[in-house]
From TrEMBL:
Transmembrane segments: none annotated. It holds the Pfam family Ribosomal_L33. GO terms for cellular component: cytoplasm; ribonucleoprotein complex; ribosome. This is Large ribosomal subunit protein bL33. The gene is rpmG. InterPro entries: Ribosomal_bL33 (IPR001705), Ribosomal_bL33_sf (IPR038584), Ribosomal_zn-bd (IPR011332). It comes from Fibrella rubiginis.
Length: 60
């Protein structure tokens, strides 16, 4: 049976890359606790297409 918990998988996508018009999409998969963090999360992660650390926001 599937595990029913508060931890869910979320996808983080780069926001600066689309605005700059650089080809490709930088995405990361992580988990978050739905009960403790109901809002969408934002993290600074490395973007290999732009070769720098950029802001990644949760999508969906």
């Amino acid at each position: 049976m599937a595990k029913k918990g508060n931890r869910i998988q979320v996808i983080l996508e780069c926001t600066e890359q689309r605005a700059a018009g650089v080809p490709g999409i930088s995405r990361y998969i992580t988990t978050k606790n739905r009960k403790n963090t109901p809002a969408r999360i934002e993290r600074k992660k490395y973007n290999p297409f732009m070769k720098k650390v950029t802001l990644h926001k949760e999508i969906k």
